[in-house]
Amino acid sequence: MRRLLAPMAALALFAVGQAQAADPVTINFWHYQTSNREDLTRTINDFMAKNPDVKVREQFKDNNNLATEVQAAALAGRAPDVAQLLSRLTIGLVMNTKPVALDSGPDKGAFLKNVAPNFLAIGTYRGHPYAVPHSFGTPIVYYNKDLFRAAGLDPEKPPRTWQEMRELARQIKTNTGKHGLFVSTGGRDVGPQQMIVNTGADMLSDDFTRATFATPDAIASMQLWQDMAVADKSLAIFTERENTSLFMAGQIGMMVTSVASFQGAKRSTEGVFELGIGHYPTWNDKPRRVPNSGAALMVFSQDEKRREATFRFLAYLMQPEVSNRWAVESGYLPIAPGAQQAEIIKEAVAKEPRWGVAVSQMDDLVATARWPGSRVVEIQIVLENMVQALWQGKAPASELVPAAQAEITRLIAQGS
């Protein structure tokens, strides 16, 4: 009997050992994808099929609260292994949550070679990459070709410069009675940043210690916004949701917002009006500089096995064939070097040239300001309040823009 039990016990222990060895490493992925969640889930499932020893547990979070939840979870030692976070929050999160540098793995972040350098720079701080792009957008002009025709404008000629933008918006208002333009502020501060940086200004000093955006051209660009809102009355200044709904209903001539809205705009305007897409306008004859919108992926794994599995997951997402497919499915920008020449991207652009407008701006992409310290939300509110004061005509840009710059510099110092 004893001779019979011994082999059985050994067999049982072997079976348990095999089961334990086969248990996959589970990593937690927090994200805010809604309309693209099905595409994201399919990508995750593809990764797990190729990597059966890793299980990705994805969890949806409200974008408005995600960064706050990550910070709270990090303080409690329960941070997700990887999270999709707005890229402009990168530096503040590095300072407050101690994420993992993406070049700290055994291969020193070899997968990062699959990211275009100007995109990778957005998540780099003090020489180390902490965030890798995942769902980046760039601003474009959506316009109503039918309203252009009604206003006596050429529907195949969207504005090339902001000076042309003002004139076209004024003609739409004068000739149709409808507002000419709506500019999305993009979560408090992205819209004004895009306008200001496009003039050649930088939002922050290189050492992230002070705001630097109150240049003559930047002030002039903000004054143009005020003139459109107050003098011309061609700029719609309702809430973001109201303005978006009005544009989709054919009541506003042009809308400036991220390419991330393209798929939804295409669906919403079908049968309502002919939708045109134009490049983000330049400031006079200056080169186009378009700060990104959207999110990047940051790693917080403290467990060695989960961190290694998370790096493998990111490496998979950064493979050009994977990231290019995600771009086509989601409408976000492709992120691989030379992605514009990839067959899947060329085919998608040929099929939908309007999306190709955003793709053609990839080389013009620069970083949205990555606010440092612990006062990020207050800094964003300063810019939001500046824009509202401009649109309401409370003071000229020559007063409001330098005042906002000084207040942001004060908040950076307090939050460092």
Furnish the topology, listing elements before pairings.
Blueprint (H helix, E strand, L loop, with lengths): L1 H21 L2 E7 L5 H14 L3 E7 L2 H13 L6 E5 L3 H8 L19 H4 L3 E2 L2 E2 L2 E6 L1 E6 H6 L11 H15 L2 E5 L6 H9 L17 H16 L8 H9 L3 E7 L3 H8 L5 E4 L11 E2 L1 E7 L4 H15 L1 H11 L12 H9 L1 H7 L5 E2 L9 H16 L5 H19 L1
Parallel strand pairs: 1-2, 1-3, 8-9, 11-13
Antiparallel strand pairs: 3-12, 4-5, 6-12, 7-9, 7-10
Describe the structure.
- The protein is an alpha/beta fold and 416 residues long.
- 48% of the residues lie in helices and 15% in strands.
- It folds into two domains: 25-137 and 293-362, Periplasmic binding protein-like II (D-Maltodextrin-Binding Protein, domain 2), CATH 3.40.190.10; 139-291 and 373-415, 3-Layer(aba) Sandwich (D-Maltodextrin-Binding Protein, domain 2).
- The chain contains 17 helices and 13 strands.
- It has a five-stranded mixed β-sheet. A four-stranded mixed β-sheet has the order 8-9-7-10.
- A hairpin with a 2-residue loop joins strand 4 (124-125) and strand 5 (128-129).
- The N and C termini lie far apart (72 Å).
Q: If helices are DSSP runs of H or I spanning 4 or more residues, what is the number of helices?
A: 17
Number of folding domains?
2
Secondary-structure class: alpha/beta
- The CATH superfamily of the largest domain is identified as Periplasmic binding protein-like II
How widely separated are the two ends?
Answer: 72 Å
Enter the CATH topology name of the largest domain.
D-Maltodextrin-Binding Protein, domain 2
- What overall geometry do the principal axes of the alpha carbons give? globular
Number of strands: 13
Strand content of the residues, in percent?
5-15%
Helix content: 40-55%
How do the strands of the widest beta sheet line up side by side? 2-1-3-12-6
CATH level-1 class of the largest domain: Alpha Beta
Mean pLDDT: 93
Overall CATH architecture of the largest domain: 3-Layer(aba) Sandwich
Q: What low-confidence regions span 5 or more consecutive residues with pLDDT below 50?
A: 1-5, 7-21
Radius of gyration (CA) equals 24 Å
Order of helices and strands: HEHEHEHHEEEEHHEHHHEHEEEHHHHEHH
Largest sheet: 5 strands, mixed
